[in-house]
Amino acid sequence: MCSLPRRQSGATLVEMAIIAPVFLLVLVAIIELSMMFFATLTMQYAVREGGRYAITGETADPAAVIARIRSNALGMYERTAPQVSVNGTKYTSYGKGMFGAPGDILVIQLDCSWPVTTPLLSSFFTDGTYRFSVAATMRNEIFP
């Protein structure tokens, strides 16, 4: 006597309906984590390029250095909304000698935040925001 196979026509669909939301949530979390690391690396590159521009002495205008940072940030400057500090002083209170004299050490720091949108990740960060700092430390060139 030969036994007939059982019919399981709907089992695959039910299994997919159970697994798909979890899989998609993990996939989106991985994508967002990679975007957070990309933002960190991009902002680190941008602050380094801004620092390199500042140490040459070609400009004493902090807005020009911020513009250089913004142009090298690949759109992440607006997304991360950084607070800029130069040698420990917030960008809002800058002056002519903000970048120091020739031979001085220049430290540019950006305190950034990234709003986390994935529910799986937002519980791991305070207020659902990934906060990070990037900085560049360089010695001013001997400029006239």
Nutshell version of this structure?
The chain has helices spanning 11-55, 62-72, 76-80, 119-122; strands at residues 83-86, 89-90, 105-115, 129-139. With 144 residues, the chain is an alpha+beta fold.
Descriptors for this entry?
alpha+beta; 4 helices; 45% helix
Write up what this structure looks like.
The chain is α+β, with helices and mostly antiparallel strands and 144 residues long. 45% of the residues lie in helices and 19% in strands. The chain is built from four helices and four strands. It has helices at residues 11-55, 62-72, 76-80, 119-122; strands at residues 83-86, 89-90, 105-115, 129-139. The protein has a four-stranded antiparallel β-sheet with strand order 2-1-3-4, with helices on one face. Helix 1 (11-55) packs antiparallel against helix 2 (62-72). It is rod-shaped and about 95 Å long. The model has no long low-confidence stretch (mean pLDDT 88).
Strand content: 15-25%
Which spans have pLDDT < 50 for at least 5 consecutive residues?
none
Oligomer: single chain
Overall 3D form: rod-shaped
Mean pLDDT: 88
Rg, alpha carbons: 25 Å
Termini separation (Å)? Answer: 101 Å
Note the topology.
Blueprint: H1 11-55, H2 62-72, H3 76-80, E1 83-86, E2 89-90, E3 105-115, H4 119-122, E4 129-139
Antiparallel strand pairs: 1-2, 1-3, 3-4
